[in-house]
Amino acid sequence: MSDDDATGLRFEVEPPDPPNEGILFVDHSELGRSGHLGHALVEYAPGSILAFYPNCSDVNDGHNGDGWMEYKRSEDGGRTWSQPEPLAYSKRIYDQGIGRSVMCEKAVRTDGGAIVLFNLECENIPEKKWAWQPLSVPTFMRSTDNGISWAPATLMGDQSGRIWDALVHHGAILVLELCNDSTIHWYGNRPEHHYALYVSTDQGYTFSRRSVLPFDIEGRGYGAMAILRDGSLIAYVYNLADEKHLDYAISDDGGHTWGVVQTAFMAKKIRNPQMAAFKDGFVLHGRSGNKGEGRGHLVLYTSSDGIHWDAGRYLRMQQAGWGAYSNNLLVGGPSPGAPKRVLIQASHAYERSKTNIYHWWLK
């Protein structure tokens, strides 16, 4: 980033750019497979990571949920990874052939050491255009042995929809859901659609709805959250009609109430935003929009306050069809005192919209 950009932070990207192709994490091209939905990441001990990703078919040019979740494990801060393992619950649902899929987009570690994994429960009919809607009520699963085994999936609330973000703050798990079964569109399109904040204060055993966020729902989708430096909670959502501005709202009381909705400018556009607090500021990344010039790339922004963002930089340019679905994780080193880094995991289309999975590190 430039030294005179007051909104940005200076950091190094690994691998360095230009060019920056990322680190190949999953090569789906060998078997003509794909992986869009589901990039849950969690650090369950310093330097110990579970990285989830989808293993899906080439239906709809590869842009689908026709498959199951897998994961790899690292115990050395992401330097090396285990062989892939299927997530048993997701694979079992798919193998039953009942027209359903389970994808996992977010995971957290509780203060007590449990992992909570959040599941997108969706219909999977390959003849349909997107093959991952309509949606059912999302579920969550707990693991107390670092992801070796999982408790049965439990419904989170009673609203069909999609969990867009989850984080832990002061011992509570905060979860952002767009309550919309996606029967018509994946984004808000009916008066009853809304964003809700669900909270667990018992280490992820139960969740309850704390508030409905004050966003205009028409044409809104995706979402991201972070804790600002003053301890307040910020939530961002995507506006289909204006890809250079994200709507945001701030809560000063842990999500019980929210301030007036405002907008943040994103110079290179943004879709499916993912946000993280890092060092003395914030990072935000996603696809550089779906429309017009400069669309479809994986873009990264930085900010000193989580509201005003720099001009952005591209991490990887679109080469084929749709990709740039992403997630991030703050990772420590396996040795005490090792500096924190940010792991970014994202899909990238290698042919049509069939995607491989790549990693970038920020330090």
Mind explaining what this structure looks like?
This protein is mainly beta and 363 residues long. Helix content is 2%, strand content 44%. It contains one helix and 25 strands. Strands 1, 2, 23, 24 and 25 form a five-stranded antiparallel beta sheet that branches. Strand 13 and strand 14 (208-212) form a beta hairpin. The longest helix is centred in the N-terminal third of the chain and has 8 residues, at 88-95. The protein is globular, with a radius of gyration of 19 Å.
Please write out the topology.
Blueprint: E1 13-14, E2 23-26, E3 41-45, E4 48-56, E5 67-74, E6 85-86, H1 88-95, E7 100-109, E8 115-123, E9 139-143, E10 154-155, E11 162-169, E12 172-179, E13 194-200, E14 208-212, E15 220-227, E16 233-239, E17 245-251, E18 262-265, E19 271-278, E20 281-287, E21 298-303, E22 313-316, E23 326-331, E24 341-351, E25 354-362
Antiparallel strand pairs: 1-25, 2-25, 3-4, 4-5, 5-6, 7-8, 8-9, 9-10, 11-12, 12-13, 13-14, 15-16, 16-17, 17-18, 19-20, 20-21, 21-22, 23-24, 24-25
Q: Tally the helices: what do you get?
A: 1
Point out poorly predicted stretches: none
Total strands: the figure is 25
> Roughly what is the average pLDDT, rounded to an integer?
94
| Percent of residues in beta strands | 35-45%
Fraction in helix? under 10%
Terminal-residue CA separation: 13 Å
H/E element order? EEEEEEHEEEEEEEEEEEEEEEEEEE
Please tell me what the overall shape is: globular
What's the main sheet like? 5 strands, antiparallel
Derived from helix and strand composition plus strand pairing, the structural class reads: mainly beta
What is the CA-based Rg, rounded? 19 Å
